[in-house]
Amino acid sequence: MTEQLSKRARRMVDAGYKVTKARMTVLRVFEESGGHITSKEVLERVAAIDENIGRASIFRTLDLFTRLAIIRPTYIETSMTPSYVLLPDGHHHHIICTNCDQVIEFDNCDLSDLAHQLEAEYGIELTGHLLEFYGICKTCAV
Amino acid sequence: MTEQLSKRARRMVDAGYKVTKARMTVLRVFEESGGHITSKEVLERVAAIDENIGRASIFRTLDLFTRLAIIRPTYIETSMTPSYVLLPDGHHHHIICTNCDQVIEFDNCDLSDLAHQLEAEYGIELTGHLLEFYGICKTCAV
DNA sequence: CCACAAATGATACAAAGTATCAGTTGCGGG
DNA sequence: CCCGCAACTGATACTTTGTATCATTTGTGG
Questions:
Q1: CA A43, CA B34: separation in Å to the nearest integer?
Q2: From the candidates B64, B74, B75, which should be mutated to test the interface with A, based on the most A CB atoms within 10 A?
């Protein structure tokens, strides 16, 4: 099988994990969905593609991807299912309307100064970050 | 009853909600815990104080406090129960070691410039934000 | 192509969160 | 001070989300 692997799939292989149908399907669901997606939605979409893929494997894969920093769970609504975000390559920030849950994306964050300062202060090596702003969007403000 | 209400309790009253034993107990648990706390821990600690307080009321209160921006659900570990953070007054940020899950807190973020810029650009009114850095801590880097 | 560890799907289970509803309680008005 | 009512509660039963287990299958290095 000489199929071309996406960068993310490669990251998984490099970390010593096997390329399986379950994992590729979950990855595909994320890449096609583009944005935020709850575990429930992942379950549904994976089932739509291949209903033989087990529930447990999907959760295992979500866990794996989280550990590999391929996705990151985040919170948008209240106390409920997490929403997973595909981490593109370092940057991915949101402005979330707390009224209608619309998500606006932006990437011109300017955190490198702060990041360096924190690295120095705490002796830590930073590899990524998540920045979310909450507010009321134009439409809801009316 | 002329008991002094905390600022947060007052915010609740001002929004038209009643001061009840269940709510005050949950608030007290948060204020005494100081930091991150999962719903499970809230359940346990509330039960330790007053075991007559019902499960459902606690979840209702978590929901209410989230809507009132008294607390904010956040994600620290992998795909699991959210961890609630008492919002002190606007700021509360984390550096999370992706290896050992240690959490370092800091609050000298300097996002007001960026926030203003985004407000202008997207015509949105921002009310809060969440900033998390991920990396490898000193201890794990060895 | 073989062998074996890694991963899977099925099943059954545990935990987290929610709907419902009759009973209780905080609180504003008299 | 107490009355009345809407808001809130606790109990129960339920749905949903996530996990442990285990026999079977599959990817991959040799």
A1: 36
A2: B75
Amino acid letter, B6: S
Q: Which phi and psi angles does A102 have, rounded to 5°?
A: -65, 145
pTM score of the predicted model: 0.71
Q: Does B100 touch chain A (CB under 8 A)?
A: no
Residue with tokens 């991920």: B134
Q: Where are the beta strands (DSSP E) in A19-69?
A: 36-38
Contacts of A122 (CB under 8 A, 6+ apart): B95, B104, B106, B137, B138
Answer yes or no: do A57 and A108 share one domain.
no
Q: B90 and chain A: CB distance < 8 Å anywhere?
A: no
Range of weakest confidence among A53-57, B39-43, B83-87, B123-127: B83-87
Which residue range is the domain that position A97 belongs to? 90-142
A64, A88, A112 — which closes off a domain? Answer: A88
Same structural domain for residues A95 and A82? no
CB atoms within 10 A of CB B67: 13
d(CA A45, CA A35): 14
Dist CA A96 CA A26 (whole Å)? 25
B43-89 tens-digit pLDDT: 999 999 999 999 999 999 998 988 887 887 776 545 566 677 665 54
Query: What's the number of CA atoms in the CB half-sphere (13 Å) around residue B50?
Result: 14
Phi and psi, residue A66, nearest 5°: -65, -45
Please tell me whether residues B36 and B66 are part of one structural domain. Answer: yes
Instruction: Answer for the pair B85, B79: CB distance below 8 angstroms, yes or no.
Output: no
**B142 & B122 share domain:** yes
The whole-number average pLDDT for the span B97-105 is 64
